[in-house]
Amino acid sequence: MVDDVSPVLLEVADGVATLTFNRPDAMNSLDVATKEALLAALREVADDPAVRCVVLTGTGRAFCVGQDLKEHVDILKSGATDSLFRTVDEHYNPIVTTIVGMQKPVVAAVNGVAAGAGASLAFACDLRILADTAGFNLAFANIALSCDTGSSFTLQRLVGRAKAIELLYFPRTVKADEALTLGLATQVVPPGELAEVVNGLAARLAAGPTVALGAIRQSLTFAADHTLTESVEFESAQMTRTGQTADHAAAVDAFLAKEKPVFEGR
Fold it and tell me: Rounded to an integer, what distance in angstroms lies between the CA atom of residue 63 and that of residue 57?
């Protein structure tokens, strides 16, 4: 458990790890301390067998508005530009690869605006549940920077290359209803219902066959940049692996007994 003064809170309960951005006064922007805390928390829950689903959310009005521009400007003025852009390799890249590479489901509970790297982090999750007051903004071009945190990979796979180019070239806030239409949101709910809906979804995922769910998300990621032949070979390996799990055996036994299976995540 991370203490409540941390820029990223971590709570684990009933198989669900909830990571919460905790800089509401700064719109949950990402300074170095926040990025380091987020990466450490993600690595911790990725390696914890007791965690069977991960939820990423924010406190206050924002989910996460990306890079802390105040810190960014301070570093620019100091002349230490090398350290400024090292953050992509040292923080953003390992953060997003840890999310995408996780062997368990990851859900973004988007409570408010998600901009820049904050939007990219949400896109890296499997499911995005949005409050109807939330939205996405790919703000990179507005500050004359390229996209990062995996958005070049994830965004076009969600909306197609043409729409991804449009959203990146001409940044604007994509409101929740449009995000749902475009496929950037899985579900849109009133703000007062967000926690209940996400908790129910996370509980359902945490009670699922974790190894199989992890294999499914990894198969989709692998197939995104491999040939059909390579992808079906990967599928075969994952089918063999999941077929040897206790959860698969329990599911078969439950099917024969005409009962609902109880999964243990192994």
Answer: 6
> What is the reported pLDDT for 5?
83
Whether 245 and 181 map to the same domain: the answer is no
- The number of beta carbons lying within 10 Å of the beta carbon of residue 11 is 12
pLDDT tens digits along 55-81: 999 999 999 999 997 876 766 666 666
Q: Count CB-CB contacts under 10 A for residue 213.
A: 22
Identify whether 232 is part of a domain. Answer: yes
| Cβ atoms within 10 Å, residue 186 | 17
Name the burial class of residue 265, with classes exposed (0-12), middle (13-18) and buried (19+) by CB atoms within 10 angstroms of its CB: buried
Low-confidence ranges of the chain (pLDDT < 70): 1-3, 72, 74-84
Q: What would the DSSP string read from start to end of 104-115? A: S-EEEEE-SEEE
Q: How far apart are CA 218 and CA 224, in angstroms?
A: 10
Looking up tokens 């692998």, which residue turns up?
222
Tokens for 9, please give them. 């809170």
Give the pLDDT score at 70. 81
Whether 134 and 18 map to the same domain: the answer is yes
Whether 196 and 246 map to the same domain: the answer is no
Q: How far apart are the first and last CA of the chain?
A: 24
The amino acid at residue 1 is M
Establish if 48 belongs to a structural domain: yes
What is the distance between the alpha carbons of residues 224 and 156, in angstroms, rounded to a whole number? 11
Kindly report the average pLDDT of the chain as a whole number: 94
Q: Is there a contact between 168 and 138 (Cβ–Cβ < 8 Å)?
A: yes
Q: Residue 102: which of 47, 62, 26 has the closest Cα?
A: 47
At residue 9, φ and ψ (nearest 5 deg) are -90, 145
CA–CA dist 107, 18 (Å, integer): 9
- The answer, as to whether pTM is greater than 0.90, is yes
